[in-house]
Amino acid sequence: MRLLCSNDDGIHAHGLDVLVRAATEIGEVTVVAPDREQSATSHSLTLHHPLRPVRRGERRFQVDGTPTDCVMLAVEVLMPERPDFVLSGINHGQNMGEDVLYSGTVAAAMEGLALGVPSIAVSFAGGDLRADIAKLDEQVEVLVPLLRHLTSLDAFPAHTLLNVNLPPLRADQVKGVRLTRLGRRVYSNSISPMRDPYGRQIYWIGGGEFSWSGAEDSDFQAIHDGYISVTPLHLDLTHRDMLDTADRWWRAP
Ligand SMILES: [Mg+2]
Questions:
Q1: CA 172 / ligand 1 centre spacing (Å)
Q2: Domain residues of the chain, as ranges?
Q3: Which of 92, 140, 162, 244 is most buried, taking the most CB atoms under 10 A from its CB?
């Protein structure tokens, strides 16, 4: 089985190493990853300058582009044969609720899906990675059986990527796996006003406080309860319920 691994934290990120360690147990791994952090770049594509892949080892490339660029180059150009799966991550931090819309980790899996390759995004819901590094390392133990299962399904769901979040626990404390839906997350105080060295007003987006809400079967609830969360996502943003009720609100002009 040919596995393409990418991420949005960059080719030097520890989470990518952990993913590769797990993926190597189940297939032949090719890494194509950004040369620097590209978190929150979502599904952006580089159109206005060329991309330069640099070989960093056997089946290992860094690219001066986004996660989407990496997956597109890997599938279309760099890999001699198409991968059977795209694996993205392990992101340093959770990707649940609305975060999937900002995430470069999830976008790399979306690009795999857009290219017709079954794809799985993996994120580690730890906060301070320095404190949780041992727990991140131990995720290999839970990831190998999970990836082995997901990549051997008779019918991997069509037109779907799987968004996996791992709880910030030691491997032997993880309670199991739940199939979930996206919850809602709310950031507050996440824009910090400050001054640049010349006294001009600037703003820095990031940090702040974070809260969430969600049903019993939400991704946030699963992580809160100590389970691995697996959320099936698709690219079709059409609001189907709204279409079904169109006779109540839509009047053709
Ligand atoms: Mg990231």
A1: 25
A2: 2-183+215-236
A3: 92
- Report d(CA 32, CA 8) in Å as an integer: 11
Which one of 3.40.1210.10, 2.40.10.120, 3.40.1410.10, 3.30.200.20 gives the CATH number of domain 2-183+215-236? 3.40.1210.10
In this prediction the pTM is: 0.95
Quote the pLDDT of residue 133: 87
Dihedral in degrees, nearest 10, Cα atoms 160, 173, 40, 55: -80
pLDDT tens track for 100-139: 999 999 999 999 999 999 999 999 998 777 778 888 999 9
Distance 217 CA to ligand 1 centre (A): 25
Q: Any idea which residue has 């796996």 for tokens?
A: 177
Query: What percent of the chain has a predicted confidence (pLDDT) above 70?
Result: 100
**How remote is the CA of residue 231 from the centroid of ligand 1, in Å?**
18
Residues 218-249 have pLDDT tens digits of: 999 999 999 999 999 999 999 999 999 988 88
